[in-house]
Design brief:
The chain is mainly alpha-helical and about 140 residues long. The chain is about 70% helix and about 10% strand. The chain has one domain. The strands form two sheets. Strands 1-2 form a two-stranded antiparallel sheet. The chain has a two-stranded antiparallel sheet with strand order 3-4. β3 and β4 form a beta hairpin. α1 packs antiparallel against α2 and α1 packs antiparallel against α4. It is elongated.
């Protein structure tokens, strides 16, 4: 049951992120990006389900998932891979958001778009975890 719940958390997280990208960003991310989101959420969900309960699992799991997503962006940036991400130089633009760059980390821009993605990725895992926890476990 734990693996099924983790798969559902991974799927929910990926679908929320897919909807966000489809509706509010351009250009659209690559299929490998969404597969990576699914796998990262699944990998984080397994120990979160086993060792953490309720809100704590959602919070800590969301933070870990968000951090791993950041690592994924940096790998895409440093490898210059157009397979890993469509925007290896900077994150996709969020429609209606004035992008402000606050600085650089290893040459990668830390911007309002990137911070928006951090909130969305955390929220996607957090929401998926709580829904699956409520109805499946």
């Amino acid at each position: 049951m734990i693996l099924v719940a983790a798969l559902l958390i991974g799927l929910g997280t990926m679908l929320i992120d897919l909807a966000f990208h489809f509706l509010l960003t351009s250009p659209m991310e690559t299929p490998a990006y969404f597969l990576a989101k699914f796998l990262l959420a699944f990998i984080v969900a397994v120990p979160a389900i086993i060792f953490l309960r309720g809100l704590r699992g959602a919070l800590i799991g969301g933070i870990v998932f968000d951090a791993l997503t950041g690592v994924y962006y940096y790998v895409a940036y440093f490898t210059r891979s157009t397979v890993l991400s469509c925007c290896y130089l900077s994150p996709p633009a969020v429609h209606g958001l004035m992008n402000q760059t606050f600085g650089y980390l290893g040459g990668y821009p830390i911007s309002s778009d990137l911070l928006t993605f951090a909130v969305v990725h955390f929220g996607a895992f957090f929401t998926s975890y709580l829904i699956v926890r409520r109805f499946c476990l």
